[in-house]
């Protein structure tokens, strides 16, 4: 099962040497086409609408990334978020998430897909592939590609250096159906998350042996099957270039080329101002604008100034959306006094989630929507606020009941002569994290709990603190996806004894869990009826609330700068870019 690493509340920066394009790749405008009605914007994203009829053919889009990816194989340990971004343009994903996180068949690759109904065993999924879909060497997509990827990711052969995403170990057999364009996948036990598999799908030529699979996937001769193909990968120069795939069978890409340029976040505003970028994620550039560690006021001022500058850049629009990433306050149940679940529940009750969201997101111009689920984002299909699982008693009564009494004169609560004073682990240099920490500190102080934020550099946040259990409370984000039954399970799985007898937390940094929660996740993962699966997930979330594992706070913000005239770009939320529709608008 894939273990996902947390992203600090303001994501850690991976800085790479930047080499920027010297001039714009905008095509010369031709006759202005008759505009068609623009499609409605996504409910959760903030994307400049792309009416293909109004987008010019040609030109080069210049897109900022943190660094040139060391691999384009998202299943290798070296893969990054930028690897996944480029893979979307280069490789098939049979299903695409919409703006609410629902996986829908992508007709460029999939004519139809059907699973046997709930209750019928074994579960067999039949994929009807688009007969026009071919790899860049002319080979049609086929069952051989599915079988090779399953062999690489199932964990059966340890020679494959893979992150082992969930689900491939549940597959029993893969075969060809009625013809070469039909693939059947048989599962050894029901697997509800089957739509999330084979996305992306890699060719058998790149996965059929561990030696091939383990190689860095950056060669210009890579076999791909997306609207774009890899035409250049220059790690030293900080540039990856994608060009139109001449064998692409779908809608012809509007742009001739996309240059992904390694531009450190602290240089992106300058690059935009100098017309060297067309699309630039700005969340880190705004959040970590302070040049050196400073006070809360210094961080806030630097962040506000960076955002104001971005909004004032001529010809630039700053798009805002909630990312598919859940920021939460995690409580370390392996460290006294938080070993007491009654105290953890009382602390969770003391947090004003709305005020915290307003403090964190308001200065960025985002709607301050508090989260009430550990498993689903607020804009995700099936979301429900389960915060009332903590009950109606106020935090002061719960703290009293847990034995922590407040002096009559006020101040910090005590029990057995010890004050209720806790540390809060936050990523250093993040204005967003600092605002959130200040709101949490004020909330808990109002209930007699002393909270002391401790800022830790990003490189030590996970290794030295979360993984080692060296914290009381911690503030960070988890990515979320369309299948929380498998994707979120490791975060809440009950820690088990390791070979040395000590509890192995794995990805559960809260270090609390129960057999019941594990069973609910397992039942949801095997439940093919959508309504029943959602009910099981809601029940798991209720139990996580009652355990006092963590407090969901808000979705991590996503800020993206887009140059005037660039269509189909912005802050996407759950729905990924449709690269073939992106380009320069006419007029």
What does this structure look like?
The protein is an alpha+beta fold. It is 25% helix and 22% strand. It contains 16 helices and 25 strands. The strands form eight sheets. Strands 1, 13, 14, 17, 18, 19 and 22 form a seven-stranded mixed beta sheet that branches. A hairpin with a 4-residue loop joins strand 10 (228-234) and strand 11. Helix 7 crosses helix 11, helix 9 (353-361) packs antiparallel against helix 11 (431-445) and helix 15 runs antiparallel to helix 16 (530-547). The N and C termini lie far apart (50 Å).
Summary of the model, kept short:
Helix content is 25%, strand content 22%.
Please describe the topology of this protein:
Elements (H helix, E strand, L loop, with lengths): L6 E2 L37 E2 L12 E6 L15 H10 L4 E3 L5 E3 L4 E6 L8 E6 L13 H11 L17 E6 L5 E6 L16 H4 L2 H4 L14 E7 L4 E6 L12 E6 L5 H6 L5 E3 L1 H5 L8 H17 L3 E16 L9 H10 L2 H9 L33 H7 L12 E2 L2 E2 L1 E7 L3 H15 L4 E7 L1 H9 L6 E7 L4 H4 L1 H4 L3 E2 L5 E2 L10 H11 L4 H18 L2 E14 L2 E2 L2 E2 L11 E2 L3
